[in-house]
Amino acid sequence: MTRPPRISLDAMGGDNAPDIVVQGADKALAAHPGISLVFVGDERRVRPLLERSDYLRSADILHTEEEVAAEAKPSQALRAGKQTSMWKAIELVANGEADAIVSAGNTGALMAMSKLQLRMIEGVTRPAIAGFFPNTQGQSCVLDLGANIECDAENLIQFAIMGRAFYRDIHGVSSPSVGLLNVGEEDQKGFDYLREAAAVLSTDALHLNYRGFVEGSDIAAGTVDVVVTDGFTGNIALKTAEGVADLVQTGLKDAFSSSALSKLGFILARSGLPGFRQKLDPRRYNGAVFLGLNGISVKSHGGTDAI
After folding, report:
1. Which of these CATH numbers, 2.20.25.90, 3.40.718.10, 3.30.420.10, 1.10.3720.10, describes 128-236+280-291?
2. Which end of the chain is more exposed for a tag (fewer CB within 10 A), N or C?
3. Which residues make up the CATH 3.40.718.10 domain(s) of the chain?
4. By the 8 A CB rule, do 36 and 4 touch?
């Protein structure tokens, strides 16, 4: 008999841990009762939260009192972090005791620890953080979102292959389209390494549905399913998208409350607003995956709430 998927949670990772981690896990188990969760962290702090939850009172805890500081450099976390909740949560996946690890903690430390313990897939030189953005067609997968500040052509080619496979398996699309993020669609634009990657991705040998260069506006337009870029550019795109989503929602709220007539407009438009708000809610797209590892490691936003 196949056991249920088991997820290891870094209970001490994130701005509001462990409270938010437990609250979020409680909601997750309510929505997906077939999963199994293990919390890694300070049992004296985590156990009382579990006992007050609706679905987690009998959940397992792997006790450790240490945690990775938000400001710790990856090298520091690796040297002194083998007793931390993050390390031990990843270790459960590396040992086959869990199927995935989720942490809202220090991104650099999570990447370094995941890479060291889970190891890279043969042939892949660097992991990439992949996440989803809303677009007019549904969702776009964008990678890298911050794991690699500098990339070369080979990195981008590997990201494209991994991103295509990730999108295919998550969304069930047999041949997702792939584009390279650039400052323009013309072949002569961009850095040399972008043009080198494009030349390889354009060949039939990789069997990729490659559509060429795309611009920032194409992410929201859904021009391609998978957008490939370096981690510096990808992280800026991510933070910009989150800021724009907040701006739009705040602007709508202010506009609909500015006068009696606008409040009437809100009443008339109210039935369509929840779907619009949900589509733009960054929380729906929280949880980026490190691709290229021999195991599943998921990075949650450090300031996430329970949803």
Report:
1. 3.40.718.10
2. N
3. 6-120+293-299, 128-236+280-291
4. yes
Higher pLDDT, 239 or 176: 176
- Bridge partners (DSSP) of residue 128 are 291
Q: What CATH topology corresponds to 6-120+293-299?
A: Isopropylmalate Dehydrogenase (3.40.718)
Tally of CB atoms within 10 A around 220: 15
* Model confidence pLDDT, tens digit, residues 241-275: 878 877 877 877 777 787 777 777 667 666 766 66
pLDDT tens digits along 185-236: 888 888 999 999 999 999 888 889 999 999 999 998 999 999 999 999 999 9
**pLDDT by residue (tens digit) across 143-183?**
999 988 899 999 999 999 999 999 999 999 999 999 999 99
97's CB contacts (< 8 A; 6+ apart) are: 6, 8
Q: In what order do the strands lie in the sheet with 6-10?
A: 60-63, 36-41, 6-10, 100-103, 296-299, 288-291, 128-134, 139-143, 226-228, 177-181, 209-214
The whole-angstrom separation of Cα 23 and Cα 271 is: 29
Cα within 13 Å of Cα(97), Cβ side: 14
Instruction: State which amino acid sits at residue 152.
Output: D
Cβ proximity of 113 and 87 under 8 Å: yes
The pLDDT assigned to 45 comes to: 96
Q: Do the bridges between strand 288-291 and strand 296-299 make them parallel or antiparallel, or are there none, so unpaired? A: antiparallel
Q: Structure tokens of 32?
A: 């997906």
Helical residues (DSSP H) of the chain, grouped into ranges: 19-31, 43-51, 74-80, 85-94, 107-118, 153-171, 192-201, 217-221, 231-256, 260-269, 273-280
Confidence of residue 1 (pLDDT cuts 50, 70, 90): very low
Q: What is the mean pLDDT of residues 276-291?
A: 76
DSSP 277-288: HHHH-GGGG--E
